[in-house]
Write a structure and sequence with these properties.
Blueprint (H helix, E strand, L loop, with lengths): L2 H16 L4 E4 H8 L7 E6 L6 H8 L3 E2 L2 H10 L2 E6 L5 E6 L4 H8 L2 E6 L4 E5 L2 H14 L5 H13 L6 H10 L3 H17 L1
Parallel strand pairs: 2-5
Antiparallel strand pairs: 1-2, 3-4, 4-5, 6-7
Helix pairs in contact: 2-6, 2-7, 6-7, 6-8, 7-9
C-alpha cells in the first residue's frame, strides 16, 4: 500500500482505537484494498463519534493535524463530516460521523481487519467489500451519476471479488438505500468485462 497514505491513516486510526471509537476506513482506499488500486488525495473514515470524544480526539491529534473543535462538534450534532489536515503533507482525512439509519449502523458491524503496513505489521478496520460497493453506488447517485472514478471503483471491486460477494446482502441493502437500478447496471457491466477478459 502507498507508504505515506498508510502512515497518515494509521496516525488517525490508532488514535481512534486508543480512544475506544469504533471506525472503518471507507472511500477510495477501501475500494483499492478490495478492488483495483488507485492513488487517492484523501482518506475517508466512518466513525461512531459522540460529543464526549471531541476534546480527547483533538488533544491526541493536534501535534500532527489541524483539527477544528467547532467543526467536529457541528459534524457530530448534524451527523455529517469534518476533515483533519496533516500539517507536514497537507494530506486530508475526512471523518464521516456514523448516521442513525439502519444501513449506516450495520456498516461498522461488518468491518474487516486489513494489513496496511508491514515491518512491523499494522492493521486497520476497513468497510466490507459489499459495503464499499453500496456506499459508492450511493455517492455516485448523490453526485448526479457522472463520476467515472466512482464507477470504476465499483466495477473494480465487483470484478476482483467475483463469486465471493454476499449477493443477498447487496440486493437487500441496495433496495433499502434505493440504488437497485445502479447495482444491476454495475453487475451487468462487471460481468461483461469478466467474460471479455
Amino acid at each position: 500500500m502507498l507508504g505515506e497514505t498508510a502512515r497518515i491513516t494509521l496516525l488517525v486510526t490508532q488514535t481512534l482505537e486508543q480512544l475506544g471509537i469504533a471506525y472503518a476506513v471507507g472511500g477510495s482506499l477501501a475500494s483499492s484494498i478490495h478492488g483495483v488500486m488507485r492513488s487517492t488525495l484523501d482518506v475517508d473514515i466512518v466513525a461512531d463519534l459522540s460529543l464526549s470524544h471531541i476534546q480527547p480526539l483533538v488533544a491526541a491529534l493536534s501535534k500532527e493535524f489541524y483539527a477544528d473543535e467547532e467543526m467536529i462538534r457541528d459534524a457530530i450534532e448534524r451527523k455529517s463530516s469534518f476533515n483533519l489536515i496533516h500539517f507536514d503533507t497537507a494530506f486530508k482525512v475526512d471523518i464521516f460521523v456514523r448516521k442513525l439509519r439502519a444501513y449506516d449502523q450495520i456498516q461498522l458491524k461488518r468491518r474487516r481487519t486489513v494489513v496496511i503496513a508491514t515491518d512491523p505489521e499494522q492493521t486497520v478496520y476497513v468497510v466490507s467489500p459489499e459495503d464499499i460497493i453500496l456506499a459508492k453506488l450511493e455517492w455516485y447517485r448523490l453526485g448526479g451519476e457522472v463520476s467515472d472514478r466512482q464507477w470504476r471503483d465499483i466495477l473494480g471491486v465487483l470484478k476482483t471479488l467475483e463469486g465471493e460477494l454476499d449477493m443477498n446482502y447487496l440486493q437487500q441493502w441496495a433496495d433499502e438505500i434505493e440504488v437497485v437500478d445502479l447495482l444491476k447496471r454495475a453487475l451487468k457491466e462487471a460481468n461483461k468485462g469478466i467474460n471479455n477478459a
